[in-house]
Structure formats: C-alpha cells, structure tokens
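Re: that chain you flagged

S.,

Sorry for the slow reply, it's been a week of failed gels. I finally had a moment to sit down with the sequence you sent. For the record, here it is as I used it:
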Amino acid sequence: MKVIGLTGNIGCGKSTVAGMLREAGVATIDADAVTREIRNNDADARAEIQARFGTYDADALGRIVFSDAGALADLERILHPRVRGAVRARLAELDQGGAATASVEAIKLLESPLADACDQVWVVRCEEDDAIRRLAESRGMDEETARKRLASQSSQSDKVAAADVVIDGSAPIEETRRQVELALATLRST
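Prediction finished late last night. Pasting the structure tokens below so you have them in one place:
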C-alpha cells in the first residue's frame, strides 16, 4: 500500500485536497478526527487533560493552548502518542484490507514519527491572507486568533522544503484538482 502524508498549515486547503483524494479512491485518515475521538472517548486521556487544564472542552482548550506554547506542548504530550498509535493501527487495517493507496492528513506530520510511515509527503501551501480569510469564513475566527493559530505551527516554508509534492491551495480549485490528480497518478505509477 502506498501512503501519502498530507500536511500544511491551518486554512491552506488540506481538507479540500483530502476530499479530492477520497473522490479518487484513496482511503483517508484525518489525524484531527482521530484526536477528537481520543479526546472524547479515551478515559485516561480525558483524565490527564482535565487534570492539566481543568477542562477537556475543545474550545476552551484551544483558547488555552494557542496562547501558551508550554500548554500546547503538554496537550500534545498527552494526545500525540495515542493519535500515532491509532493512525498506525488504521493504516495496518487498510493495508490488510487490500487498500492500494491511503493518506494521513496531519498538521504536525513532519514533526511526528508518522512521517516515516509515508511513501510521500504532500504539502498544501497557500498565501497567508487566504488562510486567514478561510479561517474567518469556516471557523468564525477573528484575524488575531487566526494569526495566533498560524504562528503556533511550524513555518510553511519548512514544510515545503521537506515535501515530495507541493500542492498550491491558493490556486483556483480546478488547478488544485489538476495538481492532485497528476501527483496521484505519478505515485500510483511507481
């Protein structure tokens, strides 16, 4: 099974690209969705989060961790090992089930050992103004909050430098689709 690691900063269009991959028959795993499942359903994780932050409510956690790098590191220390284990288990299930291609969508893919499970790393990049506008439209964030979220992530240029494939999330949607289709065809032919 070929595995695509799909990453890029918040608001750049990763979910749009993941949707295009699903339409092309790629099995997709969204690390954010896995994180939410663990935060909501793993009693040990919930207890650790509650003990550290006094809450496990997503909105409250977001306000805390995206304004305090130490708090973000603490939350990641609690959740990321569990998320990595769950994603690896799902990849194994997909492989055993005969999936030809899978993708793992994760903002912090390159900072994670999960990158080693990927045959290629695809980075979706976009102009910062586009990301801020999208965050305002899709998540109701004000500009200051959007900029804090972007600042809490590794730089887009570092991600692009580590990429096997770069997808332009600021391009018109049909151009983005063309880039995805071309990269997928190339991966599948190897």
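What I noticed first: The domain at 2-188 is CATH 3.40.50.300 (Rossmann fold).

Talk soon,
D.
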